[in-house]
C-alpha cells in the first residue's frame, strides 16, 4: 500500500498516482532557485569516462524559466552498449565542442543555484572532476538528490528510479526516449515539484530544510506524515 495515499495523492483512471493541483501550487520559499541537471556519459566514472551531453533547467516558483542543452565531443569512441542505451553516436558528437569549451557556459548557467539531479552523486561527480581538471576550479554547490528525497517520501515503493517515479506521478511524456539529458532533466523537474509538495506539508519551508531533510533517517518521514 502507498504510505501517503490519503490525503496527498489521488488516482487517475489509468492507475497513476498524482498530487492534486492545489498541492502543486503550494508556495515553497519563492526566493530559492533550483537548477535541475542531467548528463550522459561514455561510462560510469571520470576520468576514464567523459561527458557526451549536458542539460540543465532553471526552476523558479515551480516553473521552468530557462534551459541549457548541449551535445559534447568526448574525444574518444562511445562504447557500443552506451550507444544502444542513449542513442548518442560518435557521428552525433564528432563535430560538437569539447567539454573544456562547454563547461564554462554550463557553470555560468547553473550559477549559485541548488544543483538538483536524480542520483545526483553521479552527475555532480563528473562536473566537479572536470571543473577542477579543465578550469582549475573547485565546484561545491548545494546538492539536492531527487532519488534520496523519493526514498524518504515513498519508502513503500521498491524502486525509485526516474522511470518508476514518472509512472507514479503520471509524467505526461513517460513514453519519450529515455537516457537523453534534456528529456530526463524535464522528468526530474516534474518529480522534484511533486516531491517538494509533500515536503511542504511536512512543515519544510526553506531550502535549508529541504537539504537537511534528504539526509535524515527514514523513520522521520513516517512520523511526519502519519
Description:
By secondary structure, this protein is of the alpha/beta class. It is built from ten helices and seven strands. It has helices at residues 21-24, 80-86, 90-93, 99-110, 120-135, 146-153, 162-169, 181-201, 207-213, 219-225, and strands at residues 10-11, 17-18, 33-41, 51-60, 63-71, 114-117, 143-145. A hairpin with a 5-residue loop joins strand 1 and strand 2 (17-18). Helix 4 (99-110) crosses helix 5.
Order of strands in the sheet with most strands: 5-4-3-6-7
**Number of extended strands:** 7
Helix content: 40-55%
Fraction of residues in β-strands? 15-25%
Major β-sheet profile: 5 strands, mixed
Give the count of helical stretches. 10
Oligomer: single chain
Radius of gyration, rounded?
18 Å
Mean model confidence by pLDDT: 81
Indicate the low-confidence ranges by residue numbers. Answer: 1-28, 218-226
Gross geometry: globular
Distance between the termini: 14 Å
Please identify the structural class as seen in this structure: alpha/beta
Helix-strand pattern: EEHEEEHHHEHEHHHHH
